[in-house]
Amino acid sequence: MSTFGQHFKVTTYGESHCRSVGCIVDGCPPGMELTEDDIQPQMTRRRPGQSNITTPRNEKDRVMIQSGTEFGVTLGTPIGMLVLNEDQRPKDYGNQTMDRFPRPSHADWTYLEKYGVKASSGGGRSSARETIGRVAAGAIAEKYLRLAYGVEIVAFVSSVGNVHLFPPTAEHPSPSTNPAFLSLVNTIDRKTVDSFLPARCPDEQTSKRMVDLISDFRDRNDSIGGTVTCVIRNVPSGLGEPCFDKLEAMLAHAMLSIPATKGFEVGSGFGGCEIPGSVHNDPFVSAANVEVPSGVAESGAARAGHPRPRLTTKTNYSGGIQGGISNGAPIYFRVGFKPAATIGQEQTTATYDGSEEGILAAKGRHDPSVVPRAVPIVEAMAALVIMDAVLAQQARHTAKSLLPPLKQTVNTGKPPVGNGVTEGSGN
Amino acid sequence: MSTFGQHFKVTTYGESHCRSVGCIVDGCPPGMELTEDDIQPQMTRRRPGQSNITTPRNEKDRVMIQSGTEFGVTLGTPIGMLVLNEDQRPKDYGNQTMDRFPRPSHADWTYLEKYGVKASSGGGRSSARETIGRVAAGAIAEKYLRLAYGVEIVAFVSSVGNVHLFPPTAEHPSPSTNPAFLSLVNTIDRKTVDSFLPARCPDEQTSKRMVDLISDFRDRNDSIGGTVTCVIRNVPSGLGEPCFDKLEAMLAHAMLSIPATKGFEVGSGFGGCEIPGSVHNDPFVSAANVEVPSGVAESGAARAGHPRPRLTTKTNYSGGIQGGISNGAPIYFRVGFKPAATIGQEQTTATYDGSEEGILAAKGRHDPSVVPRAVPIVEAMAALVIMDAVLAQQARHTAKSLLPPLKQTVNTGKPPVGNGVTEGSGN
Amino acid sequence: MSTFGQHFKVTTYGESHCRSVGCIVDGCPPGMELTEDDIQPQMTRRRPGQSNITTPRNEKDRVMIQSGTEFGVTLGTPIGMLVLNEDQRPKDYGNQTMDRFPRPSHADWTYLEKYGVKASSGGGRSSARETIGRVAAGAIAEKYLRLAYGVEIVAFVSSVGNVHLFPPTAEHPSPSTNPAFLSLVNTIDRKTVDSFLPARCPDEQTSKRMVDLISDFRDRNDSIGGTVTCVIRNVPSGLGEPCFDKLEAMLAHAMLSIPATKGFEVGSGFGGCEIPGSVHNDPFVSAANVEVPSGVAESGAARAGHPRPRLTTKTNYSGGIQGGISNGAPIYFRVGFKPAATIGQEQTTATYDGSEEGILAAKGRHDPSVVPRAVPIVEAMAALVIMDAVLAQQARHTAKSLLPPLKQTVNTGKPPVGNGVTEGSGN
Amino acid sequence: MSTFGQHFKVTTYGESHCRSVGCIVDGCPPGMELTEDDIQPQMTRRRPGQSNITTPRNEKDRVMIQSGTEFGVTLGTPIGMLVLNEDQRPKDYGNQTMDRFPRPSHADWTYLEKYGVKASSGGGRSSARETIGRVAAGAIAEKYLRLAYGVEIVAFVSSVGNVHLFPPTAEHPSPSTNPAFLSLVNTIDRKTVDSFLPARCPDEQTSKRMVDLISDFRDRNDSIGGTVTCVIRNVPSGLGEPCFDKLEAMLAHAMLSIPATKGFEVGSGFGGCEIPGSVHNDPFVSAANVEVPSGVAESGAARAGHPRPRLTTKTNYSGGIQGGISNGAPIYFRVGFKPAATIGQEQTTATYDGSEEGILAAKGRHDPSVVPRAVPIVEAMAALVIMDAVLAQQARHTAKSLLPPLKQTVNTGKPPVGNGVTEGSGN
C-alpha cells in the first residue's frame, strides 16, 4: 500500500499529472515547533534542476502544510501536506509512439499488468514526483530525532558507474575496515556534501571524475547508475523489532522502495561475507570514556536523564546493528541505483499487445544519473525508519518503567546474587 | 513486531529454551490439501546436523499442526503450528562467563538494551530456532503458489568466503549478463541443490572448494560467511504494491530479517549500477512464442483461463521486477550472510556494565558457516513475500472484474480509438 | 489512528481552522468511472444549513479530487481528496472564557489531556468537519458496491428524544418483529428520506413531531439526541472476518467512531435479548423463489455469474449477520446519538487547572439536534465497512478458486458420499 | 483477521475439534512477573460447568505458556499460550441430520458461504472455545494495567430476559442517573459478583429471579439472552485515538466481536439519547479533593510521579469518555447477548442446498443462557482495549516529553501570557 510505518505513519498520494502530490503524517509527537521552513530545504535538495548535470526542468515544489499544526506547533493530529503539480493535464491518448509501446525497463507495462488501466504518464505512481511526500515526511521525522536524541543523518554519493569513492581492495573488501571511510562517516555533514554539487560526493577528485563520467553519458544520450552511502549517527541503542522488523530489515525495505534501487548492504555488507568471524566480530569495550557529541548532550533524552549505553564496540563491522537492534554505534549502509531507464537513444521494444516490434526514442533532456538527487530521498527514508523504531522503543521502555522492580536481579558486571534479570541502559 | 505479511499473515513465537516455538498462519486460502507432510521436508532441510560441516546437534523439529485443517484440508481459519523445544529449561544464572560478558557481535547486549531483561540464552529471539516458524509458514505458501500458478522457488549457495560460483568479472560485473548464470537460474531445482550437500552450491568444483574452505575455518575454530542466490520462476505479472511495498522492497525486508544477513541485491544488483542504461534496459518482445512451463500449464490459473502476459523481455537485468511490480520473468536475488558470531576462539569483550574487560571462549562445536542451512529459510521468506503479493493482486483484479466495462478503451497495439484505458493481461 | 480499513484504507486529516480537511483513499479498484459528481451529493447532504432546524452556517464543502483518477476513471492508485476550510485562521489565544474553561462534555479537556497541546478550536479533530473525509471516501465505496453487487445503503432518523418511529412495545420489544419496520427497511430509499427534511424520518406524523420537538429544544437553547437506523440491502453472503473482525464488530467500531454516538445495536438488538431462542432463531428456507432485485440482476457479480445464495431465512432477527458473517439478508442496525454538547444555555464548569469554577455561555446558534445530519455519515461508514469486507472476501474466494478441486466432497443436500467439504455459493 | 490490537497484539487460533486452541500475545511489556497462575483464574471463570444452570460438560482448560517468559518474568518477546482440546477428533461426515441441515441462527451456513469448506463442527471458529485465547490474553493485559495504573475491570450480569437489575424507568431512562447504579459501578468487585453464582448478578433478589427464569428456559429446552454491564475504574485520562479509534469505538468493536452479541452502549447509552443536553452535559469540577484509590496510589504511575488529572466531572453521563478520549472517570458500558442459538427443541430448517426442508433437534444439554459465562470474556476484551490504548498514549506522552519546552505557553487557569499551548496532565 501507500503507507509506511507503524507509529509514525506516512501515507502518500499523487501521480505526475494530477492536481497535487502529497501525504498525511499520522503519529507526529505533539508540541514540536514545525513550519514549512523545516521541510522545504530537503524538498529543494530533492528537486531537479540544481546543476547542469541534472535535468533542466524547474519544478517549484513548495510544500504547504494543510493541518496538524497551529501557531507553528504540532498538535499531535495528522499533518496533511501537499505540493501542487504544475503540469496537471493528463496527456490525452493519441496515436503516439509512447501510447503504443511500453518503454523498456520502465513501469509502463507492469503498471498496466497490475491495474489493467493505463495512466497517461505510463508508470503512474512510479514517477519521481511520488518521492515528494516521502521527503516532506522525512524532514519532520528528522527534526524530531535531532531534538530528542541529537540524531544526524547524512547521505552522499559513493559511486557513479565504476568511479568509486572507496573502491573495494584486497585489503578492504568492505569499506568497514578502511580508516578513511570510518573517519568520513563519523564526521560528514550535509553542508559538506552539498559543497560537492552536482555530484554530492565528498571528495574533490572523485567528485570531479564522477561529473566527467555523467557528462560523458549525457553527451551520449545514455544513463549511468551508482551508489549512495548513508550514515545515521547518535542513534539510541535498543531500536529495531525482532524478528521480522529488525532495524536493517526496515532500512532495506525503505531503501528498496525508492525508485530505481537494486541493492542494499549494511555495515560490512557483501564484502563482510568474505571476512573471517574472528576478525568480523566487534569486541565490546567500556563506553565510559566516549565523548558525548554536543547534539546528544543538548538533546531531550539527555535533559530527561536517559542513561548512556555503558558499552561500545572497538570496531564497527556490524554497522551499528546487532541481532536486528541498534547498539548505539553509527549505522551506515549503501544503496545501489540502476541507470535511469529514460534515455535519449533509440531503443527497440514491442507494442503492449505484442503484435509489433518498434523503435522508441524518448524526447527531451533527461537526468543521465539520478544518484545525486537520490541523496535527500535516502536520508528521508532513513529518518522514517529510525523515527518509527524510536517511537516503538520509547513505548516499550515507558511501559516497562511503570512495573514494580523485580525482586531478584543480576548484576552482570559482578557475580550475580540470584536468578532474574539484568538491567540494560534501557533507552 | 513478530508478524509478517498483510494478507497471508505469519505470527511467530519462541526462544531457545521455552516449551515450543511456532507460529500462526492467518489468511491461508480454504480448500487446500495440507498435512504435516507438506511442511516437514523444509523443516528438515533447515535443521542442523545434516553433514559433517554443520553442527552435530540433532534437533528433531517435528512440526505439529494445531488448527485450521480437517481431514487434511485447510478450513481458511488460522493454522497454528508448533515444534517442541527439546531443551526447555532456561539456564539458571550463575557466576558464569557468559552471564557477565556479552558475546561480541551477538544480540546479547542489544537485547538487554532493548528489553531491559536478560534472557538466559542471551539473545532471546535472535536464536536460529526462531526461523522454524518462518520455514513452516513458507512451506504452506509455497504449496499454494505451486498449485495456483506453478511457481517454483529455488535457492542455492552462490559464495562462501571468497569462493564464488559466479565471481564478478570485467565482462560480467553482475551475473545478470552471464549466460551460465541465466541458464542455471532458469533450470535449477532443489533436488539438484541438495545433491551438492553439504555446500548446496550446484557446481561440483566450486562446491568442493567451499567445503574445503569451511572445513578449514572449522579447524581454526573460526567462521566464514557467504551468499545465497534465489530464483522465483513462473511468478504472475502484476505483483508488488506501489510505492512503499514494491516487490523488491518486500523481498529485501524479508531477507534482511533473516538472522546474520548483511546485504540484498536484486536483478543486476550492485554490479548493475556500473552498466550503461542503453545496455541495462530490457527490451520488450512478444511472448507469443514463449513455451508455457508444464507447472504453469497445469496450474489453477491456467485452468481458470487467466491470460498469459503478452510481452516478455529479451534480457533480464531487471530481475523480473520493473517499477516495483513483477513482469513475469524470473525473479532472482542474492542475500549476503556474515560469518557466524559464535566461534570457538577466545575473544576479548567487556562485562555488561563496562566495568571489566575479559576473555570469552565459546564452548562446544559450532557451525563454521550458516550459509548452506540458510537456503530453505531464504526460500521460505521468498514464498511469504510472493504469497502476500499474490493475494493482494488477486483481490485487486477480482474487484476490477466486477465493474462495468469502460466505454472507451485504447487498443495499445493499434491506433487508439479514444480516451480511456488499456487492458493488461490482468493476472 | 486516523486510518480506517484494511483493504479499502481511508486516512483522514484536518481540524476546524486549518487550510483544508481531506483524506487519502488507498485500495480503490482500478477502472471505475469516478468524478467529483459521484461524491458531492453526500457531501452536500452532510453539510449544515439545510433547513431552519439545522445551523445556519453555510459551508460550501466542494470536494476536489487530487489524484488517483484520469479522464474520470480510477487508476487504482491512492485517491487524494480535499475540501478547503473557509475559516482558516486559528483563533488567537486571549483572556477569553473558552480559553480558560473547557466546555462540559466537549473534547476540550480530554484533547488537552491526550496531547498536552491545546488547539484553538478546543477539541482539535473532534470537530464535525472531521467527518468530511469519511463521507467523501464512503461515496466512493458506495459507488463500487452498487456497481459490483447492487448494494443499497439507506439511513433514516428513527427517534429524536422520546419521539420514536417504532417505539418498543410489549409485542415488539425489538422492531425486528414489527412488519411495518421490516417493510420499511426493505423498501426505503434516500429520496424518500430526504423528502422528510429536515427530520429525515420517513413518516409524516412522526417527522412532524420530531421537528416540533427539535424546535422546542432550539427555543430553549437546549439540545436533544436521537437514533439513526440504517439498512444495507443486497449484501453478498460471506462478508465478515472471524473472530475479532466480525461484520457487526466492524459496524459497531465504525458507528461508535462517529462523534456523539453512545450506542449500537444490530438486528434484534437489546430488545432481542428478551426474546426466547425458540422464537429468535431464524429458520432457513430455500431461496429458489426469492426474486432477484433489479440492482442485483444488473450488477457486476451477476454479469460474472456469481451464484446466488441457495438459502435465506424466514425471519431476520439476526439482522443479516450470523456468526459474524453476512447471510445475504438485509443488514439493519441502529445508532444512538447523545444531545449535542454545545448549547446556548449557561453552564457551570471549571478552569483547566481546576483553580476556579465559572460559567460558560456558548455564543451563536447551534444545532439543537445533530441526528438528521448524521444520516449520510452513518451511510458512509457503513459503506466503508462493507467495502472492506467485500474486498477481503473477494480475495479469499479468488484464492480458493485457483486450487485443484478436492477429491471428496459432501453434497450437503443429499446423503454424503465421503469425507471432505461442502461447497458454499462462495460469493 | 484473527488479530486484535495495534500495540498489544493478540492473535488467536483454534476450532472445537483441533489439537489445541491458543494465542500469541505480542507487545507485552518486559519485566513483569507472569506465570500461568495469573491467567488460570479467568480461564476457569470462563469455563462451562460451574453450576447447575450452565452446561455440565467439564472442560479442563489448563493454560500453558509456551514462550516469552523465563523464571516467571516476561521477556518482552511474544507470549505463546495454548489449551489442549480434549475432543480432538473432527467428526466424520456421515448421513447425519447436522451434516445436511444448517442449524438456524448458527454460523454453520455463513461459514460455508464464506470459506466454501465445511468444518465438522459446523461453525468453525464461531465456537465458544475460540474465546479461550481472548481470556488468556486479557488476563495478561489486566495484570499490567493493575500494576501500572491500579485499573480495575469488573463485569456483571445486568439482565436476563426481561429481568433487569436496573430496569429503565421514566425517572431513569438510562441507569446513568440512578444513584444505586452509580454506587454499584464505583464499588463492585469480582468476588462479590462471583458470590452471586450462577447468575453473576450482584443483587440477591434479582439474581434469584434470573436463576428461576433461566431454569424455566432450561426446562423448556429453550434459551434466553441478557446483558452484561462492565465498569473500568482508575483509567488514566487521555486514552483513545481520534478519529476512527475512539475509545468507545474500540470497546464496541471488542464487545461485538464476542459471539452472540447484539448491542453495545456506553455511558448514558440509548437512554441518554432522550435526555436534554442541558442535563446530559457533565460539569467539570476540580479534582483536588478527590481521594486517590489505594490501587492507584500504589501503582507504577504514582511511583513514577505521573500527575493526577486536575479536573473531574460532577455527573458521568459520558461514561468516562469524551470526544473519544478517557477523562479519568469510570468507564461503564453494557453489552447485549442474544439467546443461544442451540436449543433442545425441534426446529425447522432447510438443507444446505435448499432442496429440502426438515426438522433439526439438537442433542444433549445446552446452556440455556450464555450471559453469566460471558462476564470474564467481556472483562478480557475490555482489558485488551484499555491496554492497547495505554501503550499508544504512553508512547505519545514519552515522545512529547523529549521535545524542548515551548517558548510560549498559556496558563489556562489564569489570564494567558501569549500564544501557544496549554499543558495537560499528560498521562
Automatic annotation (TrEMBL), chains A, B, C, D:
GO CC, any one term: cytosol
Gene Ontology biological process terms in this record: amino acid biosynthetic process; aromatic amino acid family biosynthetic process; chorismate biosynthetic process
Keywords assigned by UniProt, alphabetized: Amino-acid biosynthesis, Aromatic amino acid biosynthesis, Lyase
GO molecular function: chorismate synthase activity; FMN binding
Cofactor: FMNH2
Similarity field: Belongs to the chorismate synthase family.
The protein's name in its UniProt record: Chorismate synthase
Taxonomy of the source species: Eukaryota, Fungi, Dikarya, Ascomycota, Pezizomycotina
